[in-house]
Design a protein that fits this description.
Blueprint (H helix, E strand, L loop, with lengths): L13 H17 L2 H21 L35 H5 L30 E8 L4 E7 L6 E4 L11 E6 L2 E6 L2 E6 L27 H25 L4 H5 L12
Antiparallel strand pairs: 1-2, 2-3, 4-5, 5-6
C-alpha cells in the first residue's frame, strides 16, 4: 500500500486505530434525533444538488401539437308530432263550442277611432264615497275586476275617458257621458252588485207662473197685517208717558210722518 492511498491510521499502531474506531462508534450511538434529522436534510440537499448538476428538470420536452378532431354532426330533427294543418280540417267543420256542432258565420268588429277607444264603455261599481269640505270623490271598482279608482268631481275614471263625475251624493254618484247621465248607487256588501241605473235626464226646471194680480194684492195685505201686528206688540211693550201724551199722536212705523 502506497503512502498516498494509505488512510490516516495506517502509520499508527493497531491499538490506536481500534481506539479511534470505538470512539466513532460511540459518537454514532450517542447521536440524538436532532443530529439524525440534520444528517438526513444534508443528504437530501446533496442529492438535489447532484440531480441539478446532472441536468434534472432541464430537458422537459414540449408535447407535440395534436390536430383537432372532427366536429360532431348535428342531430337529425325530430319528426313533427302535430303533423300538417290539413289533417285538422274536420275540426273546423265541427266546432266544439256550438250546440249543433256546425260552423256559424261571425262578424269581426273593430272600435271606431273616432270614439276614443273604450271611452264610451262604462262598467263600474260604486264602492264608496268621500264628501268633505275640501274634496268630494267616488271610489269605483271595475266590473270585470281590477284595482279600485278614486275619481274626484269633474274628473273621469281611467278606461272611460268619455264619462265625467259631475256630482257625489251620500249614496250615489252621477256621471255625464256620451249616452247621457248615468247614476251609480252605492254597493251594499253582502248583496249582489246593483246594475247601473238608467240614464237620468235632467228635467227642465218648471218656469214660475206669472204673478197674478190677485196674488200680488194678497201678499201686500199679508205684509200690512204683519206690520200692524208688530206695531201693536211694540206699543204694549212700551208704556205710555205724559211726555208721550203731550207730544201728540204717534207716528206710524212705516211711511213718512204727516
Amino acid at each position: 500500500m502506497s503512502a498516498s492511498t494509505c488512510p490516516a491510521t495506517c502509520g499508527r499502531p493497531r491499538g490506536v486505530r481500534m481506539a479511534i474506531e470505538q470512539g466513532l462508534l460511540q459518537r454514532f450511538r450517542r447521536a440524538g434525533l436532532t443530529t439524525w434529522l440534520l444528517a438526513a436534510a444534508c443528504a437530501w440537499a446533496l442529492l438535489l444538488w447532484l440531480g441539478a448538476a446532472l441536468g434534472m428538470g432541464g430537458r422537459l420536452a414540449t408535447p407535440a401539437a395534436v390536430p383537432p378532431g372532427p366536429l360532431p354532426q348535428p342531430a337529425a330533427p325530430a319528426p313533427d308530432r302535430i303533423g300538417p294543418l290539413a289533417q285538422y280540417a274536420e275540426a273546423a267543420t265541427r266546432p266544439l263550442f256550438t250546440e249543433d256542432r256546425r260552423p256559424r258565420a261571425f262578424v269581426a268588429t273593430t272600435a271606431d277611432p273616432g270614439d276614443g277607444g273604450s271611452g264610451n264603455a262604462f262598467d263600474y261599481v260604486l264602492t264608496g264615497v268621500l264628501i268633505s269640505p275640501q274634496v268630494r270623490l267616488a271610489i269605483l271598482q271595475p266590473g270585470n275586476g281590477g284595482p279600485a279608482q278614486r275619481v274626484r268631481e269633474g274628473a273621469a275614471p281611467e278606461g272611460a275617458a268619455g264619462w265625467r263625475l259631475v256630482e257625489v251624493q251620500p249614496r250615489r254618484a252621477l256621471f255625464d257621458g256620451p249616452g247621457g247621465r248615468m247614476a251609480l248607487d252605492l254597493r251594499v256588501f253582502g248583496a249582489p252588485a246593483p246594475p247601473p241605473a238608467a240614464s237620468v235626464e235632467a228635467a227642465p226646471a218648471a218656469e214660475p207662473d206669472a204673478d197674478k194680480p190677485g196674488d200680488e194684492q194678497r201678499r201686500i195685505d199679508d205684509l200690512r197685517r204683519r206690520i200692524e201686528a208688530r206695531r201693536a206688540q211694540l206699543q204694549q211693550q212700551q208704556p205710555s208717558t205724559p211726555a208721550d201724551a203731550s207730544a201728540g199722536p204717534a207716528r206710524p212705523l212705516s211711511g213718512p210722518g204727516k
